[in-house]
Amino acid sequence: MKLQDIQVSVLPPDQEHVVETQESLRAHYFADQRPWVVAYSGGKDSTLVLQLVYELLVELGPTARKPIFVVASDTRVEAPNVEEYLADRLSRLASHARANGLLLHVHRVQPTPEQSFWGNLIGKGYPSPTRWFRWCTTKMKIKPSRAVIDGIVRDYGGVVLLLGTRLDESASRAQRMEARATNSRGLNPHNEIPDALVMTPIAEWATDQVWEYLFTHNPPPWGGTHDFMLDLYRQASGGECPVVLDLNTPSCGGSRFGCWTCTVVKEDKSMRGFIDSGATWMEPLNEFRNWLKEIREDTSKRDGIRRNDSIGPGPFSSETRKLILRRLLALEKTVGRRLIEDAEIAYIQQQWTDKFDVTDSALAIAREFKREVGTVTLTPEDLSRDLALIDELAPRFEVQSIWATDLYSLVTERYPSLDSLSSRQQLLEDVIKVVENAVRQADRTEPAA
Question: InterPro entries per the record (predicted)?
């Protein structure tokens, strides 16, 4: 089916809702100095809000003096076709705005290795997410987006968040939106972000009206087309996954713009929709996702002690984590796409080393699949924190902090990589020298009997 074959409801020529929204946006733009943050997910509603805002900037021209920030969340485990689409949209948007001197800044926020899906699932052994233990939302979506927004708030003293939520989406969403207290301009304070007001420009738009605008205003002003997005809605079932800024937002598992690894839902209808529409190369991804869901319920794949030291199914066992990493890297070869970053593998190794692994197993598994991964590079903040911890703990164990610091420096500075046998042997020799020097120094300072 081609794009032009998709049936669109024929709407009456009444366009009052468009004019009212455009006038409202214009009035709010000049109402105060707070910069705007447009939460963009790539879905139809957030795309509509972004397009209306962008068209306003183009219309205002030199009189538009207040910055607009576009924040889009890339969890690193988006469906690969959606991830490519999102990256292309944001690149075109940023380039067009820059070329035309528009005060619009694009932020494609991603989780750090510590916040990432694989960093937590394989590194720390977190079981794959459930409806009751949805750890992925906070770590992969809320924290990265909040870090950017909090920074904008610090720089400007406050922001207005523009969200694509609509009353027409669902009865529960409408009830929550109508229950919010608003100020004289109809904006409500965000329930978790200080100094942030929330605007929902298309709250009153019906779904048909959203589609009509996107079809009749295609291509968007920043270039490219909406065709791929519109086709995604034809291919996959499920709802739209918004930019998540707090835990009040329900899970978007199974949505067209959700994560391919989502195990919150029983069946990923979105992925199945892609596959049934011809993207058969995604079948191995779907099978891997189903396997992650299955092993979560297999107690033999989990430790018998929880992270709080209570008895019960705990994190994935060390062998299970190694199995997941090996199968994930094999999956990369099968689908021909990068699914885990080097920094995530390095972080996984760091976590394993802290808990159970002294042979760099994660790095060795990566090498099996021709992935050469270096060790984690410590930041100055990491070094400062670690050295402060040495100074604090050394007296408790009756250890001279200077010698502990010397040993620490050997590992972090002189031997950051221990991939070769010779480097390991040299490290051992240098450690012996430090210890012998420490013993000699202690003997000199020990009072005579």
Answer: PAPS_reduct_dom, Rossmann-like_a/b/a_fold, Sulfate_adenylyltrnsfr_sub2, SulphurTrfase_DndC
| Residue 170: predicted pLDDT | 52
Backbone angles phi, psi at 176, to 5 degrees: -65, -40
Tokens of 90: 């944001």
Report the topology of domain 26-235: Rossmann fold (3.40.50)
**In the predicted model, what is the mean pLDDT of residues 194-211?**
93
Residue 174 confidence class, pLDDT cut points 50, 70, 90: very low
CA pair distance 434, 445, nearest whole angstrom: 17
Average pLDDT over residues 383-407: 67
Condensed to tens digits (0 to 9), the pLDDT of residues 342-377 reads 999 999 999 999 898 888 899 999 999 999 897 555
Alpha-carbon torsion, ordered 206, 208, 210, 214, to 10 deg:
-170
CA angle 346, 348, 354 (to 5 degrees): 105
User: Quick check: 118 pLDDT over 50?
Assistant: yes
Identity of the amino acid at 307? R
262 exposed, middle or buried (CB, 10 Å; 0-12, 13-18, 19+)? Answer: buried
Parse the chain into domains and list their residue ranges: 26-235, 380-445
| Whether the predicted pLDDT of 1 surpasses 50 | no
3 pLDDT band, cuts 50/70/90, is: very low
By the 10 Å C-beta count (0-12 exposed, 13-18 middle, 19+ buried), 304 is classed as: exposed
Is residue 412 pLDDT above 70, yes or no?
no
What is the spatial order of strands in the sheet that 196-199 belongs to? 104-109, 68-73, 36-40, 159-162, 196-199, 188-189
> What's CA 365's distance to the chain center, in Å?
25
